[in-house]
Each structure stands twice: as structure tokens, then as C-alpha cells.
Amino acid sequence: MSLRLQIYSIIFSFFFGVFFGIFVKLCYKFLFLISMRKRILFNFFFFFIMALIYFFSIKYINNGILHPHFLFLIFIGWIVEDKIFNVKKK
Known about the structure:
Blueprint: H1 3-26, H2 28-32, H3 36-62, H4 68-89
């Protein structure tokens, strides 16, 4: 994989982590505060759809080549989004 594709993939993974964090906050009520059966069902579909969005996007960007540091950057993006959201909240 060329350096340009890796940089695009890294940037996309970071921003997908931010996007993922925002959607978890928006869907918090459905992910954590409803009955157990509905929560399990909603969690399954929510994470399945988010995973499909990520993998189809990575397939479009770099033909589906996935490296561990891409997943790490999703996590870092989620943490950065959480810090930004908490600063705006105060």
C-alpha cells in the first residue's frame, strides 16, 4: 500500500472514531437506558451498521486492507471526541 493510501486511511480512521463517538452519545438512551432485550437488539444493529460503514469505506479507500493502527486511530478519535464534547459541555 502506498504512503498516500495509508495517510488517507489513517485520517479516515481518526475521523470515523470521532463520528462513532458522536453517534454513541446521540444514541445513549437506546444503547444503555432501555430494557435488556431492546438494548441487546439495538446494540447489535448499531455496532453492525457502524462496522459495515467503516469496512465499506475502507474498501473504497484502500481496497479493504486493514491494519491494527487503523483500529487504534478509531479509538484515539473516540477519545478526542469525548474530550472535545466534555469541554463544550462545561
